Amino acid sequence: MDRLTSLSVFGKVVECGGFSAAARRLNLSVTMVATHVQSLEERLGVRLLNRTTRKVSLTETGKFYYARSAQVLADLDEADREAAALTTTPRGVLKVYSTTAVVRFLLPVIDEFLAMYPSISLDMNTGERMVDLIEDGYDMSIRTIPSPDSSLVARKLTPWRHVLVCSPSYLEAHTAPKTPADLISHNCLQYSYYPYNDEWHFETENGERTQVKVRGTVLSNSAETLRFLAVNGRAVWLAPSFIVAEDLAEGRLVTLMPEYRGVEFAINAIYPNRTHLPTKVRLFVDLLVERFAEHRKWMT
């Protein structure tokens, strides 16, 4: 029989002073109440209750066991109440892992979120590795490319596209590529986690897809490293629009092949499952979706 149920029934018998009274309180048959108590006694190999036709009383062992089991049940009830409270009042530690490139967009949202919910504290790490949310203990991650784990939930924050760029100084020494096929003769900076590896994918205005295998002298998981090299005229780069927007606006980089654009990706909030999603995670994701909507126009 279920051990916790038997403990609860045993406690009720003690509190009510008998099997019949406990049965009425629990809406069970007297036989079922007696069976639960007997199950505990058989499991322990001791008698917990002295039974007479008029009343029941605790044995010496029963007194000890009742005191300890009552505390166990009280602790369990308290745990249930605290867990229920977490679903209505957000509190505790929110552990987040984010791709470094989007941290500057996250910071205003994080500041707003912590001001809204002062009972929540943040544990945030950044980097480029593919973390295991379950094994590494993260509530969620923010990524710019699809997760390799299809069992995870991905909530889209905003779509974005790559843009092909280089510095003005690069064009002084090299002929600008006009089509993807022209990139074969160029030094191309490559991002380690680009989903298609060394095959860059493009899309025309009418939606036709094309791709080309590229090569270059640098492969890195650091977007900032690739940005630095592109700005300094080392190569061309298929760059995330949100990383190079300021460089393009201020002329440090220029766009190439305007008839072709990178295929669409999304910045996603990724978490293990939808069932019983902690309130702190749900509220943070909802705020992220609302705030990232403001970035959609220029990111695409």
Q: How many structurally independent domains?
A: 3
Number of helices: 11
The structural class is: alpha/beta
Low-confidence stretches: none
User: Helix content range of the residues, please?
Assistant: 40-55%
Report the CATH architecture of the largest domain: 3-Layer(aba) Sandwich
Order of helices and strands: HHHEEHEHEHEEHEEEEHEHEEEHH
Radius of gyration: 31 Å
Highest-level CATH class of the largest domain: Alpha Beta
Fold and architecture overview:
- With 300 residues, the chain is of the alpha/beta class.
- Helix content is 42%, strand content 25%.
- The protein has helices spanning 3-16, 19-26, 30-44, 60-88, 103-116, 133-136, 168-173, 223-231, 241-249, 279-292, 296-299, and strands at 49-51, 56-58, 92-99, 120-127, 140-143, 153-166, 188-191, 199-204, 209-213, 219-220, 236-240, 254-255, 260-262, 264-271.
- The strands form three sheets. Strands 3, 4, 5, 6, 7, 10, 11, 12 and 14 form a nine-stranded mixed beta sheet that branches. A three-stranded antiparallel beta sheet has the order 9-8-13, with no helix packed on it. Strands 1-2 form a two-stranded antiparallel sheet.
- Helix 2 crosses helix 3 and helix 5 (103-116) packs across helix 10 (279-292).
- The protein is rod-shaped.
- The model has no long low-confidence stretch (mean pLDDT 88).
